[in-house]
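Same chain as my last thread, 415 residues:
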Amino acid sequence: MSFSHLPNEVLLHIVRNLSRFSDLCTCSLISHTFLSVARPILYREIEITSAADDFDDEDDGAIMARQAESLKTISENAYIGSLVHKLRCRDTKSTTYSDLIVVEDYLDLQDIVQAAKNMTSSVKSLATAVAATCPMLKSFEIVGGFSDRPDPRLILPKSTYDNSTQYELMTGGLQFPHLEHFGLSNLRFILYESNGNQKIKDLILQLVQSCGQTLISIRIPILFSADRTELAFIMKLSFIRELPPSLEELYIEISAESLLVDEDDDFNPFCSIGEDIFGALKRLHTCDLMAWICDADLTTASYPGKAVHYRRLRHAKGEQYKSLWTSRQDRIYPKDDFVITHSSVEIQGEFEGKDAKNAWLDANEEGELEYSKYIDEPKTRQFKALEDNEARRWPHNQSRHYQDRVKSYEMYEIC
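reply #2:
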């Protein structure tokens, strides 16, 4: 029996169980039937890289020649382009001075179609080429070079380094109708370009606004010089207003393993944006902001170093009034102890849909809140969850397993 007589389900099962990329390529050459099944898998994820260590004993020239041909195929063939769901571009194979490899040094730009020209040297050109050739793209990640040298001309080609528009906002006809993830990382060279950091921030904010109906995750660059300025950028969260209005639950994970927040005040802004979030999303009743940030020893723990959990609860005054509960969580280094602070404020608006049943970890059912002596301050309560049997101010002494309840929160297990 020839391969053409085998059901596609059987062929698909064969190619999915191949462990090596070379075997998959071989299958695509056996017959046209095998090719039709193997090609979507071959082109689903494309990486343009000069990292010779990833390709056994091949030299850099052979690697880049083959990848340049693949890129040309994707750009010239609309069908092939539609199969690409993930495209990455990685410049260097080493962080040492002598081993720095720049992708464009190995690409003959005359052999690459106009849509993909200069794709490794310009965020805007890369995005334009990808949008034009890969209309079904779901994940778009741009990873810069890993060199520690402070001269960006050693990474960016001279022909585009002086181009002030290379990080212009993606506007006009640039569309990603199916984009679910967008990422920028290892772009430290923008620190040395005039206003480069701000241009990247503006790029991110506008992209998430234009793709607000499809985006479910975004990776943003937190630079090693991160401080309150960087946190203020994260705090804008303007893309929330572009999310579907039917959204009822929102979980945001901030992955900033290189960011050390040793002052509690730096995290305070995250605990004061609840009214803005719930005012924008009328059906939202649950929102978590979880920040995986490094400890004093520059490592991350199994649980977020900082987190805030918002819950919208019903109010006795009626549907236009809600009780917004804010539960802040701060991890105590180096132990896995937590200080939890709960507060509740009254909010008013045109709310829709159902409310949350309880505040985070049922905080609203654990005794009475302490009213502030100042009338304009929210009601608050605070306690420290410890692993021993020391009595706690709140919750009451009968709740001996609150520490475990924090650790077993389902979103921490998912993340």
